[in-house]
């Protein structure tokens, strides 16, 4: 359940991060690969080493999708339909991994924003990422 | 009840020792030597109470937990946060035997405090994020992995005496 204040906070944060989408997306992914090696199995066809173009472009895609979704959270189900279909029928990533990436995204945000990543911002962002992940998994079965 | 946390579950039988690489040992000791226990502990506990408000159920004697500002300024939260860090310090000093080091603490949390062990993971995740903010860029993926492995062992050991 997100309050209006929280929704505004989330939009603000993603807006400020859009210029560094590649950097923060890649950072979150690298953290996930380091901490949860099972997640690497979904990327066996890509070069996911630090600095690789695949990693940067993939990180950017993820952050831009998160930023886009944040602009109207009530419409996530509509905004995310193409991604829902992709994840359910083509990628078939086990949804447990969404939680792992969400956690690593929070850590990446904390490293970057430091004291600005307040408990309130953390709570709001955690709720948003959980909602995003839940919508993403909705067409799985 | 959906899983809220991501710290890895460890299944350590009592006959299996956790093995630490040199990097992991050095990293864990380094982190704990650099963070201020009376800053990080209170921040992590306060964050847990804000981000996962249901955890407040264990702190009904702590007074005003009405909003984030109240939680942050609550002296009992701060004191307990520091106590937690000193508890973790014991694990850092006994990396090769965290399980036995925490036997009494595990019994306490189970028999007296009646804390659902899932909550340990929630606090561990909040602590990771607070330490990340403290260390910034130096909290690399590899450092995070070592720190999370340590916390996973701690969490597992704390849950061990529940029955």
From TrEMBL, chain A:
Which species is the source of this protein? Gymnodraco acuticeps
Q: Which domain of life is it from?
A: Eukaryota
The record's similarity note reads: Belongs to the globin family.
Q: Which InterPro entries match?
A: Globin (IPR000971), Globin-like_sf (IPR009050), Globin/Proto (IPR012292), Hemoglobin_a-typ (IPR002338), Hemoglobin_oxygen_transport (IPR050056)
Name of the featured protein: Hemoglobin subunit alpha-D
Could you give one GO CC term from the UniProt record?
Answer: hemoglobin complex
Q: Does the keyword Transport apply?
A: yes
Task: Drop me one GO molecular function for this one.
Answer: peroxidase activity
Keyword annotations of the record: Heme, Iron, Metal-binding, Oxygen transport, Transport
Q: Does the keyword Transport apply?
A: yes
Q: Any idea where the Globin domain is?
A: 1-141
Q: Its Gene Ontology biological processes?
A: hydrogen peroxide catabolic process
What PANTHER family does the entry give?
HEMOGLOBIN FAMILY MEMBER, HEMOGLOBIN SUBUNIT ALPHA-D
Automatic annotation (TrEMBL), chain B:
One GO cellular component assignment for this chain's record is:
blood microparticle
Q: Which GO terms describe its biological process?
A: hydrogen peroxide catabolic process
Q: Which GO terms of the molecular function aspect are on file?
A: haptoglobin binding; heme binding; metal ion binding; organic acid binding; oxygen binding; oxygen carrier activity; peroxidase activity
Does Ribosomal protein show up as a keyword for this record?
no
| Keywords assigned | Heme, Iron, Metal-binding, Oxygen transport, Transport
Q: Where is the Globin domain?
A: 19-163
Which superkingdom heads the taxonomic lineage of this protein's source?
Eukaryota
The keyword Metal-binding is annotated on this UniProt entry = yes
Q: Which family does it belong to?
A: Belongs to the globin family.
Spell out the PANTHER family in the cross-references: HEMOGLOBIN FAMILY MEMBER (PTHR11442), HEMOGLOBIN SUBUNIT EPSILON (PTHR11442:SF7)
Q: What is this protein called?
A: Hemoglobin subunit beta-2-like
Q: Which gene encodes it?
A: LOC117548870
């Amino acid at each position: 359940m997100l309050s209006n204040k929280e929704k505004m906070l989330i939009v603000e944060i993603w807006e400020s991060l859009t210029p560094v989408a590649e950097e923060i997306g890649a950072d979150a992914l690298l953290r996930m690969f380091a901490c949860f090696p099972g997640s690497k199995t979904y990327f066996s066809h890509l070069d996911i080493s630090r600095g690789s173009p695949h990693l940067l472009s993939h990180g950017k895609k993820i952050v831009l999708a998160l930023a886009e979704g944040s602009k109207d959270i009530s419409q996530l189900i509509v905004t995310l339909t193409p991604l829902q279909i992709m994840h359910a029928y083509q990628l078939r990533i086990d949804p447990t991994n969404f939680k792992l990436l969400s956690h690593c995204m929070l850590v990446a945000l904390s490293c970057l924003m430091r004291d600005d990543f307040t408990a309130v911002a953390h709570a709001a962002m955690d709720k948003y990422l959980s909602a995003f992940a839940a919508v993403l998994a909705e067409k799985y079965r | 009840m959906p899983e809220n946390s991501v710290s890895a579950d460890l299944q350590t039988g009592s006959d299996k020792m956790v093995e630490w690489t040199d990097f992991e040992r050095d990293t864990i000791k380094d982190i704990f030597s650099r963070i201020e226990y009376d800053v990080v502990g209170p921040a992590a506990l306060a964050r847990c109470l804000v981000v996962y408000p249901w955890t407040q159920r264990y702190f009904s004697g702590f007074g005003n937990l009405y909003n984030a500002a109240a939680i942050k300024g609550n002296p009992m939260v701060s004191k307990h946060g520091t106590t937690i860090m000193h508890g973790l310090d014991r694990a850092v000093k006994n990396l090769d035997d965290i399980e036995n080091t925490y036997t009494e603490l595990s019994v306490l949390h189970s028999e007296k405090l009646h804390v659902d062990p899932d909550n340990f993971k929630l606090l561990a995740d909040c602590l990771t994020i607070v330490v990340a903010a403290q260390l910034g860029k130096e909290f690399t993926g590899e450092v995070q992995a070592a720190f999370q492995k340590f916390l996973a062992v701690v969490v597992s050991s704390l849950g061990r005496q529940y029955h």
